[in-house]
């Protein structure tokens, strides 16, 4: 029952979060910093009260290790947000980040000297191919989206390439953070909720560097169209309402993933998160009518097929079916 509840939290929280994020980004494409700050502040406050008991509970993992992890985490979050300012469509943004399997495997081979089965390498090829197809097709759309001089088209395309480079760097940095976190858990034990708190609490001073941008968007949000909120009986600028819902749904999503990690195997967690990404992508395309050609659908299907092969879902299903058949034979 707990597992089903956690899966519902992941799907409801994350899919709703995508809707509110795109509502924010469509109105103000550069609002990523204020969104990230609001999410970090909310999760840090909740963790400070319930995880650290208002600072009375000491961390199980040394703070110095969290500082390193947080530096990488903060860098990845900021770069992913800034990439949206460089003609990166939300569906492409989600698909590109689905390539985390590739980055993790590459860095695992290079840093941890790991070796993988042929099915894992096949999944890498499929995911790479899917992302390549989607990236190429999006590049064509960017080149033809704006009419003007050839020089203008080149500038728009180069602007888009900077966004792709930022996403690539963030992908590799995120994979490196995952490997670092894995080594910490092996040494000190798993403390996911503690890590969640420090990952969101320690970076907060870093937002001082982005304070002017955050303040500007606070002003813009306050100038947005007011809407009546029946519960409080007051009119609230619609962008602040979207931001509040984005923060709440992000928290629900993260809490669901945390419960899953304590109740299920990593295979189940990976499968749920993968299906959630696919569902979020479909919602983004259908609800917001984002441009998505047949080639994009093909690339998306290949990405998620490769991800499912990586998680060895088919092998697990076959083993489970074989086990049931053997059990029936024994009963007979």
From TrEMBL:
<keyword id="KW-1133">Transmembrane helix</keyword>
<dbReference type="InterPro" id="IPR013657">
    <property type="entry name" value="SCL35B1-4/HUT1"/>
</dbReference>
<feature type="transmembrane region" description="Helical">
    <location>
        <begin position="121"/>
        <end position="138"/>
    </location>
</feature>
<feature type="transmembrane region" description="Helical">
    <location>
        <begin position="158"/>
        <end position="175"/>
    </location>
</feature>
<dbReference type="Pfam" id="PF08449">
    <property type="entry name" value="UAA"/>
</dbReference>
<protein>
    <recommendedName>
        <fullName>Solute carrier family 35 member B4</fullName>
    </recommendedName>
</protein>
<feature type="transmembrane region" description="Helical">
    <location>
        <begin position="196"/>
        <end position="215"/>
    </location>
</feature>
<keyword id="KW-0762">Sugar transport</keyword>
<feature type="transmembrane region" description="Helical">
    <location>
        <begin position="95"/>
        <end position="112"/>
    </location>
</feature>
<feature type="transmembrane region" description="Helical">
    <location>
        <begin position="63"/>
        <end position="83"/>
    </location>
</feature>
<keyword id="KW-0813">Transport</keyword>
<feature type="transmembrane region" description="Helical">
    <location>
        <begin position="32"/>
        <end position="51"/>
    </location>
</feature>
<feature type="transmembrane region" description="Helical">
    <location>
        <begin position="294"/>
        <end position="321"/>
    </location>
</feature>
<dbReference type="GO" id="GO:0012505">
    <property type="term" value="C:endomembrane system"/>
</dbReference>
<keyword id="KW-0812">Transmembrane</keyword>
<feature type="transmembrane region" description="Helical">
    <location>
        <begin position="266"/>
        <end position="288"/>
    </location>
</feature>
<comment type="similarity">
    <text>Belongs to the nucleotide-sugar transporter family. SLC35B subfamily.</text>
</comment>
<dbReference type="InterPro" id="IPR037185">
    <property type="entry name" value="EmrE-like"/>
</dbReference>
<feature type="transmembrane region" description="Helical">
    <location>
        <begin position="235"/>
        <end position="254"/>
    </location>
</feature>
<keyword id="KW-0472">Membrane</keyword>
């Amino acid at each position: 029952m707990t597992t089903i509840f956690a899966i519902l939290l992941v799907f409801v929280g994350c899919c709703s979060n995508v809707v509110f994020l795109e509502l924010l980004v469509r109105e103000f494409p550069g609002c990523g910093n204020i969104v990230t700050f609001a999410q970090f502040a909310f999760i840090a406050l909740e963790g400070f009260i319930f995880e650290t008991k208002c600072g009375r509970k000491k961390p199980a993992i040394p703070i110095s290790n969290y500082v390193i992890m947080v530096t990488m985490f903060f860098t990845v979050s900021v770069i992913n947000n800034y990439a949206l300012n460089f003609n990166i469509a939300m569906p492409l943004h989600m698909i590109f980040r689905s390539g985390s399997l590739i980055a993790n495997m590459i860095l695992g081979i290079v840093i941890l000297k790991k070796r993988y089965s042929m099915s894992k390498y096949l999944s890498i090829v499929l995911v790479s191919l899917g992302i390549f197809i989607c990236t190429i097709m999006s590049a064509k759309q960017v080149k033809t989206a704006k009419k003007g001089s050839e020089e203008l088209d080149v500038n728009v395309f180069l602007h888009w390439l900077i966004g792709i480079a930022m996403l690539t760097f963030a992908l590799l940095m995120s994979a490196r953070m995952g490997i670092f976190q894995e080594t910490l858990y092996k040494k000190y034990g798993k403390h996911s909720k503690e890590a969640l708190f420090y990952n969101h609490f320690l970076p907060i001073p870093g937002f001082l560097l982005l304070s002017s941008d955050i303040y500007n968007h606070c002003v813009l949000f306050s100038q947005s169209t007011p809407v009546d909120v029946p519960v409080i009986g007051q009119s609230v600028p619609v962008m602040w309402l979207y931001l509040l819902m984005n923060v709440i749904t992000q928290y629900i999503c993260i809490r669901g993933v945390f419960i899953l990690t304590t109740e299920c195997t990593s295979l189940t967690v990976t499968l749920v998160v993968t299906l959630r990404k696919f569902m979020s992508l479909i919602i983004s395309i259908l609800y917001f009518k984002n441009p998505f050609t047949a080639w994009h659908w093909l690339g998306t299907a290949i990405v998620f097929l490769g991800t499912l092969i990586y998680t060895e879902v088919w092998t697990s299903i076959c083993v489970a079916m074989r086990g049931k058949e053997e059990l029936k034979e024994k009963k007979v």
